[in-house]
Amino acid sequence: MPRVSFGAWVEDAVDWLQSNLTWIFDAIKAVLGGMYDGVNAVLSGGEPLLMAGIFAVIAFWLRGVIPAVATFAGFALIDSLALWDEAMATLSLVVVAALITIVIAVPMGIWAARNNRVSAALRPVLDVMQTMPAFVYLIPGVMFFGVGVTPGVIATIVFAMPPGVRMTELGIRQVDSELVEAAEAFGTSPKHTLTRVQLPLALPTIMAGINQVIMLALSMVVIGGMAGAGGLGEKVYAAITQLQVGLAAESGIAVVILAMYLDRMTGALNERVSPLGRRAAAKVAAGARRLRFAHYKPGTAVAMTGVVVLALIAGGLNIAGSTDSKAVQADGGNVGKGQKINLGYIPWDEGIASTYLWKEILEQRGYETGVTQLDAGPLYSGVARGDIDFQTDSWLPTTHKDYWDKYSDQLDDLGSWYGPTSLELTVPSYVKGIDSLEDLKGQGKKFDGKIIGIESSAGMMGTLNKKVLKEYGLDGEYEVVSSSTSSMLAELNASIKKKEPVVVTLWSPHWAYGKHDLKKLKDPKGAWGKGEEIHTVAHKGFAKKAPAVAKWLKDFELTEKQLTSLENEIQGAGQGKEQDGVRNWLKKNSGVVDKLAPVPGGAGGSQQGKDAGKTVNMGYFPWDEAIASTYLWQNMLEDRGYRTTVKQLDPGPLYTGLAQGQLDVQFDSWLPTTHKDYWNRYKENLVDLGSWYGPTSLELTVPSYVKGIDSLEDLKGQGKKFNGKIIGIESSAGMMGTLNKKVLKEYGLEGEYKVVSSSTSSMLAELNRSIKKKEPVVVTLWSPHWAYGKHDLKKLKDPKGAWGEGEQIHTVAKKDFPKDFPELTGWLKDFKLTEAQLASLEVEIQKGGAGEEKESARRWMDANPDVVAKLAPVGS
């Protein structure tokens, strides 16, 4: 028979679709990605135990007390395994895929049940969908939609569709034809016959089909982890490829818990929505003589109330926990400004090590990162499409030659960071007489005719099969067993324990050579080729998207000693703690981050402090010098390795939070006057770290065009000119109390003027509006303030000294602050800013606008490169 090039036709079709219908695929990807993000935000947004409570209430409603308790215990176990986020990601994928599948499958099943031609046409299509190996569905998904959530959802929909269609059709066809005929005889329309007769009676079968859809969706979602779909699938895939038995067991248990919950709940849902199901449930409950409470199920309204209450609590806690600012990363956190960088890696040790090294470096430099483990094929495809920004484990020119040749037009080679490497076949040293590839010939029986390989997609496997075996006459005598890197290492380890002969694929550098006594088989004919280089490869346009990162990667290099020690540190940290291993390694190799990812201002701006890693909780009220000093210190502390949170509060709650230890420090205590009341009330629970700016002044201010008003004394009798109003700020501010209780009384302005409490921003808006209209206005203000630079204003003189003497701006902290943060305490006690420094910092923050305060402070720091080293010095 002639060779039929079916596969070639499929590839041509795929190429045409990729070239001509990309816009459709992008639209589908956006819609499905948006649906997933929305569902995942809801499921993973609340506190895990509260969400477990919601799932338990649903179980209580559908199945009773005992299943509810078991549900809560199961989801609490998932949380205790630190797999909650992954489980909710998986559940989100299942929900999205299952909903879409049901929306399509049920109408198709109804159509097939009512039309024999449609049924006949669908049957072979469903057969193909149901019997095609599940992994095959990932290929077009990755080709059309790249790696990530979308290919997983698409593959899941296709895989889970058949039972939904078949069971719906079966359920409707099984409805007694005499009932249908009776309905028609009474004049029931086809539509009402379907909705009032056939669907209610077919509902148990349809629900069974929906149950199978959900179960298949869950099984496929786990497989989707191979395409970067995330969730538990990625954990299971990582455990398989790295032979992590513990992780596999934990992830497997989480999958089982999800599967049991979804299975039992969808099965029980039939009892709630089906008349037959409700009748059967009522009969069971009525017949129960013992443990009647176990059969009790709350009404829908009661269950819904419980769900709503728990959801509101979970949402409220989530909002409270995320208010204002999240903890951010250390070291030059401004550079990336939160830009998302996606990294991918093949589960080879140097790939894991270099990827998590760069993940940590990028997070220290202010980037947000995503990391996905993939096989080589999907990884290169993902980088080419731009779904993955870069990967650091391209073995060129041999191992990954095929992938480079296929995608080189869409990739940028950022250079080699390690080399030369070598590929080899390896045997344990106790295997005598096998020292070279030539020695393998005629020795096949000794090794059971097998060479234990790694992933079939790896380029070195192609080189082994196509060149090495042929060059040494080993083809036919040896079968290369494709497995995975972890499986190969497990086989090597098992053979060594039993002292059995084994030959495996390996490469240098690799930690296995340090763990075992191995021999690299010599390659006198050079079949493996010359030693390779390990390259960093990014998608086209990455250098434009993230120029700083691209430059760092181009200059990236590790020595063999550095790479080996990094791999060993990660091995010691264990599965799932790769980044902890990297952090431990970085502590032992100080200066690596500054060398690999230099930032403006030099290394002095990003050296770690003695208390690096501690979290400093800062608070401020929205006065300009408070905003400026707080975000300045947030940047500096992150550069010194601290973690930070920032919260905006009114002065009352802020001082209360400091006194109770809920906040650590704030930088805007105006003493001894403005904040006198707060200081007197809480001083036993606070510590004054000293003044960093002063003297200040409080004043009433008018625009310069308001003639004849130069002093507080001039305001008397002029109330009508200002509509009897003095525009104030927050009522809780100490200066507002001083104004009302002392200044107005001292100058006889009580009764003539009303002090309007508002906010700092409202006062400034009123000042700006009045100036534009050239209207008289008198406002509360203070020095220093940027408004004096923006507008032509007059500070009203205070000849009677009612405002009191000029104040100092102090840093005030909780009582235990010096003990908790000794290094930072020393810095803050020496903290000083000149009027020119503070004014320029405030101006920069004003230019940046709301929401950009941290970035604006970083720009000011870049323009004043010595400020970090001066204000937060670290030891050499």
Query: What proportion strand?
Result: 5-15%
Instruction: Please give the alpha-carbon distance between the first and last residues.
Output: 78 Å
Let me know the average pLDDT: 85
Secondary structure tally: strands? 20
Rounded to the nearest angstrom, the radius of gyration is 35 Å
Low-confidence segments: 321-333, 601-605
Shape: globular
Feature tags:
single chain; 876 residues; alpha/beta; 3-stranded antiparallel beta sheet; 36 helices; 55% helix; ABC_Gly_betaine_transp_sub-bd; transmembrane helix
Structure description:
The chain is an alpha/beta fold and 876 residues long. It is built from 36 helices and 20 strands. The strands form 8 sheets. The protein has a 3-stranded antiparallel sheet, sandwiched between helices. The protein has a 3-stranded antiparallel sheet with strand order 8-5-9, with helices on one face. The chain has a 3-stranded antiparallel sheet with strand order 13-20-14, sandwiched between helices. β11, α26 and β12 (643-648) form a beta-alpha-beta unit. The longest helix has 34 residues, at 190-223. It is globular, with a radius of gyration of 35 Å. Residues 321-333 and 601-605 have low confidence and may be disordered.
